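Title: Request for sanity check on Jg7578 protein prediction

Description:
We are preparing a figure and want to confirm that the structure record we downloaded matches what your pipeline produces today. Could someone re-run it with the sequence below and paste the raw structure tokens into this thread? We only need the token string, no images.
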Amino acid sequence: MIFNIWPATFFFLIWLCNDVTSKRNHTLKPRVVLPENYVKEMRPPSRKGQPVVVEFSIYVVDVNSINVEDMDFRVDMFIRQTWVESRLQLPEDIFEEGDDHVTLPPEFFDNLWHPDPYFLNSKVTEIAELTHKFSSVTLYRNQTVRYAARMHAIIACQMEFQLYPMDIQSCPIYIESFSYSNQKVRFQWSEAGVTINPELKLLQYHIGEPLRLEETNGYMIDKDDLWMAGCMMFVFAALAEFVVVKVLDKQYQMNKSKTQESIPRIIPVRLNGEKGSCGTVAAWEGSGVRCRKVDLTSPTSPPATTPVVHPAPGAPTAHMVGVERRQSILQVAWVDADTGQERVLWREIDKLSRVVFPALFLLFVTMYWPVLLLKTKASS
């Protein structure tokens, strides 16, 4: 008889433990805190005409992948949103002793009404996950619901680089409710608001609160392009001046060489009085024969000379050579009327460039940086 009682007692204890466990586990089911007539698509009741207030806070973990080409950046952060859900029925047995809140799994959030927030200027928004999504729902005794999640978002930012490298980029994050208007749901910052990881450091940026990126070193755009264009203009101007001077110097050397070759070489000769010849004295100039006719009837009077030129076959006349020589020399050199010294064009250009180029560059620098600093101060 005793052996028949033990099996019955054993099965009774197993049933009792299962019953206690089921009562213990049923606290995690949504229907424990949600009434039967609960509709998650309807917002919590509020005063007539007043929106449901949702407090929002962001803890910035990291800011990276700042892309000036696509004008966006990535933010890793924790978000927390809190509101009051007066329709909840919270039994006392779901709270541990001494606690005023209980944390439920993220699946419970799907059965609750939520304000449905989203980042208006985000390109991608995802909740981080490893084995499961990093999110949780916390219920408080005063019927307050707090939803927290670890997420990352790629935020678009209309960056302006006109004042680079002295530019300051202010990148706001707009948060709105996708399903409700401002008359139904209103977002406001909690006391914490936006906080930033104190260990967060960016090499090219300073971070302020709220997210304010002050660029200290980065990419060449706009104002930097203006500076680079100015510097390159002076470089190419110096190169062009060098080419011009080199060409003029070459032309000057060629003209000088031709001038030396065309100087008359006078050789006195005595000619016979043949037909077609001239007097008794003549000179060879390379391009022809220049004769002086001597008046033999007046031995006491100075000889009257009448130059007669007999050009060599195929050679230009002396008049044409002189005109061509003067025109060539005047292009690259001339004689100073005051000093009587020869002035060469390429040398004058080189001397002038040594003064004009540094003066213009100094003027460019003195105008560029003050204007840039004044605009930066005005924009900040």
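Thanks, this matches our download. Residues 223-261 form the longest helix (39 residues).
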